[in-house]
Amino acid sequence: MLFVLGIGSLVALQGCVFTVVKDAFPLLKNWHVSLITALIGFLIGLVYITPGGQFVLTIVDYFAGTFIFFVLTTTEVLAVLWWYGLENFCADVEFMLKRRLGLYWKICWGVVTPLVLIVIFIYFLCSLERLKNGIYEIPDIALSFGWVLTAVGLSQPLIWWLIYLCKKRKGIIQAISYSFCFNNWGPKDIQTHEEWTQFKLE
User: Fold this and answer.
1) What is the pLDDT of residue 16?
2) Is 115 marked within a binding site?
3) Is 5 a known ligand-binding residue?
4) Which of 190-194's residues contact partners 24+ apart within 8 Å by CB, and which partners?
5) Cα distance between residue 159 and residue 144, in whole Å
6) pTM, two decimal places
7) CA 113 from centre of chain
8) What average pLDDT does the chain have?
9) DSSP 40
10) Where are the alpha helices (DSSP H) in 111-171?
11) Per-residue pLDDT for 43 more than 90?
12) How buried is residue 72: exposed, middle or buried, by Cβ count under 10 Å (0-12/13-18/19+)?
């Protein structure tokens, strides 16, 4: 059971990395991307079988898995549903699925899910204690590494947005307004974008 669970998680993570790399570099061959990402993942994984691997696993799981997950997930849900707008989101889903969403989904996505995530996040912060590995306390230097890991993870959306702005440095004001103008958002494919625009107008 644990083996199958591990393989399932690995395939899902590998699929995410593979998709990101292929989107950024579409000319690369599939087997090249698979080989390189698998090799890098294997080399990183070797850290966990060292004598201090259990401590590293505890730190990475807590700071890079749990904390970042809570913060980014809560922020993402709030940004999409309360800033981009529940109606816009539902219209996009309806355009993709070709079917109207019921009231149940709107209540869950617009009210229940954001509030539950906020409550869980607040509880998580209130119950925050010094990290331990069994009976052993994690050293301060390791905790510092963990918080740096968290900072790097949480800063990713900002970093990539700044990279986008740097690429558009000749028209940085226009790039910023373009980033926040919902009217410019939509499918990348030109034909699909036209269909989506017409759907939104209707």
Assistant:
1) 85
2) no
3) yes
4) none
5) 21
6) 0.66
7) 17
8) 83
9) H
10) 113-126, 140-154, 156-167
11) yes
12) middle
The pLDDT of 32-57, averaged and rounded, is 88
Contact 173, 166 (CB under 8 A): no
What's the CA gap between 34 and 21, in Å, rounded?
Answer: 10
Q: What is the mean pLDDT of residues 31-43?
A: 90
Range picked from 43-47, 120-124, 166-170 for highest mean pLDDT: 43-47
Q: What six digits make up the tokens of 16?
A: 């995410």
The alpha carbon torsion through 190, 16, 37, 52 (nearest 10 deg) reads 150
137: helix, strand or coil: strand
Q: Identify the pLDDT of residue 170.
A: 63
User: What's the CA gap between 40 and 144, in Å, rounded?
Assistant: 25
What six digits make up the tokens of 196? 């989506």
Token pair for residue 187?
Answer: 């499918």
How sure is the predictor about 136, in pLDDT bands with cuts at 50, 70 and 90?
confident
- Cβ-count burial 13-47 (b if 16+ within 10 Å, e if not): eeeebbeebeeeeeeeeeeebeeebeeeeeeeeee
In the numeric block, the tokens 């809570």 are attached to 70
